[in-house]
Amino acid sequence: MKKIQAGVIGASGYAGAELVRLLWNHPMVEVSGISSKSYTGQKISDLYPGFYQICDMVFQDEDSVIAASDVVFASLPHGLSEKLARKCFDADKIFIDLGADFRLDKEEDYAMWYGLDYHDPALHKESVYGLPELFRDDIKGKKIIGNPGCYPTSVALGLAPIMKAKLADCKHIIIDSKSGTTGSGKSLSEATHFPRCNESFAPYKIASHRHTPEIEQTLSRLCDEDVLINFTPHLLPINRGIISTMYVDLKETMKVEELHVLYEQFYANEQFVRVLPLGKTADLKYIKYSNYCDVSIHLDERSNRAIIVSAIDNMVKGAAGQAIQNMNILFDLDEGMGLKMVAPSF
Ligand SMILES: NC(=O)C1=CN([C@@H]2O[C@H](COP(=O)(O)OP(=O)(O)OC[C@H]3O[C@@H](n4cnc5c(N)ncnc54)[C@H](OP(=O)(O)O)[C@@H]3O)[C@@H](O)[C@H]2O)C=CC1
Ligand SMILES: CC(=O)N[C@@H](CCC(=O)OP(=O)(O)O)C(=O)O
């Protein structure tokens, strides 16, 4: 069978380079081209020596990558993807955007939280929010995918069974998330500078993080009611991983065993969401470098408050791995192809 020609725009960035790493080992993919503006003409292996003698591809311009590809992944700062998506759409190529440009249904949310406008609104009607476990049927047959944000992936997978069963008090959901520093990309920033973040731990963007509308959009869609959250991200002094602890007041009195059964049934057919046995707690250790999302179920019986913990690798399930899952769906392949790696245990 002919291999899929897959190109990566923004392959010099963290999420882009992770895409190249994963696509390189995908049995049905040939990496057709990689782009960077700052490193055009240089090899990816010069920038990231882990690729040396395995993938010594040279960074090209964006148009050359698009021309050579059946599917184009874009991993760029927000606001740069619309024009590329238009080129791909008109050329009948699939476009998978790792940024936020195709994630939000309402243009006013994008304007409010990202300070940007849609320049090609018609294109957004052709796109779909690509969270496979929750919206798989909507993804099939689409040409433009808005790959979910990293925090929103961990939250949506963690809360979907409760939301779908309409068990949550939708106006009082508290989400406390922690991310490793690769979440902020390769640019040098004060917050992620080693002596600043090492041996430190603090929340940031309290009540103002741009993932808030994306999380509310997904949770509202699942329960058919307007959801209001308090979302507090924290910066963890580690490279990879997101752990989200979520507090939900339940409308009915439940036993933790009942809640656990609800989750086990909801995710019974999902290969990348692992509902942990009761008594276990999701832990970044066991999902790093993998496409798995671990979810552990807890209940404070005194307050009838469910406490759900989810863990993902922000670079894999939170970005590149999920994007490849979407590609597999669109090309009618096994959804887990190229993604079934087990996390290292130490
Ligand atoms: N890091 C993460 O955990 C996650 C990231 N994402 C999203 O993925 C996207 C990429 O993020 P990340 O890899 O972390 O970011 P990086 O800063 O590491 O990489 C950004 C990439 O964009 C390119 N770029 C920057 N400015 C421009 C420009 N003006 N024109 C063309 N290319 C440009 C850079 O290329 P150059 O070499 O030319 O500088 C680089 O390849 C973002 O939208 C981010 O929100 C999504 C989920 C998780
Ligand atoms: C630690 C850190 O800085 N994380 C980033 C996560 C956002 C990200 O990666 O962008 P997406 O919207 O594409 O998911 C942040 O808080 O902005």
From TrEMBL:
Keyword Cytoplasm: yes
Localization: Cytoplasm
Gene Ontology BP annotations: L-arginine biosynthetic process
Reactions mediated catalytically: N-acetyl-L-glutamate 5-semialdehyde + phosphate + NADP(+) = N-acetyl-L-glutamyl 5-phosphate + NADPH + H(+)
Name used for this protein in its record: N-acetyl-gamma-glutamyl-phosphate reductase
Matches recorded under Pfam families: Semialdhyde_dh (PF01118), Semialdhyde_dhC_1 (PF22698)
Protein keywords: Amino-acid biosynthesis, Arginine biosynthesis, Cytoplasm, NADP, Oxidoreductase
Keyword flag Cytoplasm: yes
Domain Semialdehyde dehydrogenase NAD-binding: 5-142
UniProt-listed SUPFAM superfamilies: Glyceraldehyde-3-phosphate dehydrogenase-like, C-terminal domain (SSF55347), NAD(P)-binding Rossmann-fold domains (SSF51735)
Function: Catalyzes the NADPH-dependent reduction of N-acetyl-5-glutamyl phosphate to yield N-acetyl-L-glutamate 5-semialdehyde.
Signal peptide start and end residues: none
Positions of transmembrane segments: none
GO MF terms, alphabetically ordered: N-acetyl-gamma-glutamyl-phosphate reductase activity; NAD binding; NADP+ binding
Coarse class of the protein's main subcellular location: cytoplasm
Name of the top EC class for this enzyme: oxidoreductase
EC number: 1.2.1.38
Provenance organism: [Eubacterium] hominis
HAMAP family referenced in this protein's UniProt entry, alphabetically: ArgC_type1
UniProt record similarity statement: Belongs to the NAGSA dehydrogenase family. Type 1 subfamily.
Gene Ontology CC annotations of this record: cytoplasm
Catalytic residues, chain numbering: C150
Pathways involved: Amino-acid biosynthesis; L-arginine biosynthesis; N(2)-acetyl-L-ornithine from L-glutamate: step 3/4
